[in-house]
Structure formats: C-alpha cells, structure tokens
Amino acid sequence: MTASLSALAALLAVSTPVPTDSFQFSSFPSIHVSSRRHGNKLFASGGMDAYAAQIAALSANAAAPTPSPTPSPPSPASTSSTSSSFSGTATASSAIASLSASQSQILSRIASSIPDLAPKHDLSYDASSGLIVHGFPVILDARDAPGPSNIAWLSSLCIENTLSSFTVFNGPLTDVPHLLSRCAVDHERDRMRFFLDFRPRAYGAYEMRKPDGTYPGPDVLGRKSFEYSGNRRQFDDKFGTPEVISFLDGVVDSLEGCVRLGQDIDSLGELERVTRGPLALDVLVPISPRHVDAHHHLSLFAHPWLCYEIKHSQHNIHTILRARETAANYWLTWALDPAHAHRPGAPINSQYVYDTKYKQNAYGALLNFYRGLYGQVDGEKLAVADSGPLDEAYVGGGS
Question: What is the spatial distance between Cα 100 and Cα 175, in angstroms, rounded to a whole number?
C-alpha cells in the first residue's frame, strides 16, 4: 500500500504539479487597508474553575525549552516569496508535519521582525513535558512581548498527526486584530477543519448581523448602535479591506471539496458567536484519497479517480499552507505599522478592559471546541495551555 501510494505521488509530482498560481503573495503583502461579527459579553459561568485548576498543574509540569537566539531587528518588507510548499501523498500525518514546519517558519519571521518577542518558558511545552493529547505529546512555543510591540500572548501549538494552531493576542497599546490560524484533523472522515480569523478589537455587534448583511439600528439598540457601527466601519477601513476579503474568498474558491461552516450565525454556540470575527474562514476539506486502505494496492491506470483525488488533496494542503502564511504576513504588516497604535490614556485603558473580557470569552469558545475534539479531560488541558494567561495586564499599558 505505502509503496503504491509513494509511486503514485512521485508520478503526480512530475505529471500534475501542485499549481502555484492560485495566489501571488510576497512575504509582506501590500495593505490598502470592508467587512462582513464579535462580542462584549462577560465570560459564561462554568469554565473558569477548570481554567484555574488546570493552569496551576500545567505550569508546574511545563518544561523549559532551549532559549531561542535573540531576534534580529525588523527587516524591511520583502518582495520575494518565502512560502512553503507541500508535495507527496496527503495524509493526516504528512499534512500536519508540513503545516507545523510552515508554522515554525512563520514564528521565526515574526520573531526576527519583533525584537522584544520573548519565549515564555514556564508556559511552553516540549515532548518531555508530559502533556499528552490524542495520544501524542503537545509541543507549544509560547511567547510574549511586554515592550513596545505589546504582544500579550503568542501560541505556536503542534500535535503530531492531529493539530497545528497559531494564535496571537495583541496587547492594549494597539487596535491590531488578534490572529487565529488553526488546522485540526478529523481522522474518521479523512478531512481537515481549517479556521482562519482576524478578530476585531472593538465590539461591533457582529453576532447580530442579519441574513441580508445589515445590523440592528437605533430602534433596537438605541444610541449604542452608532457606536457599534462606528467600530465596524473602522475595522473595515483599516483591516477588513477589499483586498483582504478577496484573499479569503480566493482561498475558499481554490479548495477542492470545500464545505463552509459557521455562515449561519444562529447555528454557532454563544461564545463562538461573540468571539468570531466578521471575516472568519471556517471550512472542512478532504486531505487524503477516499476508498484506499491497507488491504488494497491500486493501480493508477486502473483507478484514474485515485490520481484525481491525490492531486486535489495535495492541492488543498498547499492552498492552506499559503493561506496561513499570507494571513500571518498581513498581521505582521499591521503590527509593525505605528499608525495602529492607540493614543496614551483612555483609549488604552478601554482597550485593556475590552480585551480582558474578550480573552475570557475566547477561552470558553476554545474550551468547547477542544472538548468536542479530544474529550473533557484532554480538551480542558489543551484549552488552558493554548489560551495562556487570561489577564494581560502583565504586558504593560493596561493599568
């Protein structure tokens, strides 16, 4: 079986290469800087006790990884592509391995551009830390930047054969969107759930969006509706631009066998509704050929559908790789732009108050997601590790 698939992959690599013209990205895409959801609700009861208990246990067991070298100063925007590529037969193992390698490159690029981004050894995990989820060790590189760059929490999380997730929560000194980029494998159905989101830093009542794309007005929300619409407009002007929307739409159009999720807001859980951004991309894609198991050695010529499915499963992983890298480059471009810094005083304090509530809600939504994938115990441990500290005052500017 393995030999047969390897031969097919080799032939496909020659005869049907993964297309590279779906997107044209540079390492730092230009940003012209409109939108299509977010919440102000306090964290629902029932999750914080689990968080408090788990964080103490996990912090005690976390192993300190080898310190990273001091990052070099930020480099100017590059016009050459540094994107990863995927080749070979797509399986859960190979897909996660490629995504994790690409994620490491993303982290290295960010660290080289943000000199004060430093490892959080007490909240990081390596293979010897003893944190096991889905039968595999959790590898988590945790960092923050308590200085001017003001990154409250960065989590680069990988679980072999299972999960690749990259999260950045910004501190209160800027209004740059939080970034969430996650790929989770569904082994039973040979598919992957890919989630990508630029998360607004001000409440826009996105969870109240109507099917026609409009929002409740003063007749429903009173004068607050003007505040919320102003926040939406500001996000659209700075981050949810036509260029970014076109990029996200292009990702969906390029994925083979893609099933979109979460477009019906009412179908989402409460915490997911109030934390999901207006540009959230949530899809299921196939990642390996159907109908192939260890008891069948299939000929490429006798089964042309296998050629087709291997080609397009490769294409899906390649598309997701490029999409994650491009999203990270958008975020990095925004993070390095001083135009997104708040004025000293009240704007920073207000941002801190909002962010603190938001992170609690985001932890609750993540807890529900991981419990659904990995069960109660492993889900709680992973949600705590991936969320990091819920009070971001330690990054400065919040008090």
Answer: 28
